[in-house]
Amino acid sequence: MSGYYHQEDLARFSEIGEHAPELWKKFSEWYGAVFAEGALSEREKCLIALAVAHAVQCPYCIDAYTQACLEKGSNPEQMTEAVHVAAAIRGGASLVHGLQMRNAAAKVSM
Amino acid sequence: MSLLSLHHPLSAPGEQLRVLQNGHKPFASALAESGLFPLTATGIGVLQINVGKLCNQTCKHCHVDAGPDRREIMSRETAELCIAALRQTSIPVVDITGGAPELNPHFRWLVEQARALGRHVMDRCNLSVLLLPSQADLAEFLAEHRVEVVASLPYYLEQQTDAQRGNGVFAKSLEALRRLNALGYGRPDSGLPLTLVANPVGAFLPPPEHALEADFRREMERRYGVVFNSLHTITNMPISRFLEFLLRTGNYDRYMQKLIQSYNPAAARGVMCRYTLSVGWDGSLYDCDFNQMLDLPVGQAAPGHIRDFDPEQLGQRRIVIGQHCYGCTAGAGSSCGGATVKQG
User: Fold this and answer.
1) Residue B91's pLDDT is what?
2) Do the interacting molecules here have an ipTM over 0.90?
């Protein structure tokens, strides 16, 4: 194995259902329903997915939802802003934990 | 420059067909699994006349390989044969395409004759042609003859549009759209329909038509004060310049797989070749404009030239298919009238 991530594996995603077909079926149905147009449009849901893909740093998801965003009519400006939202939350999440650091330091300090 | 002028191997239809025939599930098998093989015409509702390959633009995805360097152009004699064929029938729609069809010297005659026969006429317009000095009165001519303008605009932003259609094209397109709007085009109840046609700026499928139309309507009005009646989405066909792009950028296999995985039997049932007859610049007959560019004429059982036009035989002909046909059956489908499976 030359590496952990292979682009071709994305198309093989459904193989994960081989030893748990019922769970895969449930996941697939739920996944499809999640991304269907509802109170949010399909385009908005894809932008959220793109942002989350960057937050969880999944290369398969980034590949899939970059394509999906384009196929729902989003443009690079909108997609870049979505990535910044993910980055801001990740950065903010680190920074806000600084309060834990401050609390911990305060507790042991004179 | 066109692929032809560059002497690119893919300027030859045979080479395109050779590339397309490699390795993927045959389109005939997909049709057979949906009970649609052999695919047959259901009549002729649209006479699509391609009046030539001359164009003032050289778009990166063009399936015609059109451009300023192309010289193939329909003669007056062939245009007269098209009108004679129309006169024999009640085909309701005449769809004039190119290249930039307006650059054919017989374009206006063809429009006048088809309108005099009471047919709905569509002009597949690249918009920038309206700004050429030689076409200064074109918009007024189209309005006077109540021609539907079907205008190509891949996206509502300059960057994407110019990336596909050439630098400066978006600004020219906006000016042309404003000129059309000023004449009443795109305004409800004016009787002057303005249809936008959007195709992806890259190797991906088009968005759902109703959703993209809503985005375009909002953004075109908000940003530019431009209005239109409807928007059609078209899938990029993996032939000619778009095929060259796919191969050059390493996107070919993935794009074909996507088209094949997205095969939709409902879209296949509604493909435009079933109700369209396509006429080439030299009068040859085809099932669609894509077959025309691949040199795939109508099957031998049907007349091959407009001079031998026979609506009975042609209206029930067997459609000639190939791997490129996946481009019209993916997702919500694709045709010169946009998605073939309408939603929303």
Assistant:
1) 98
2) no
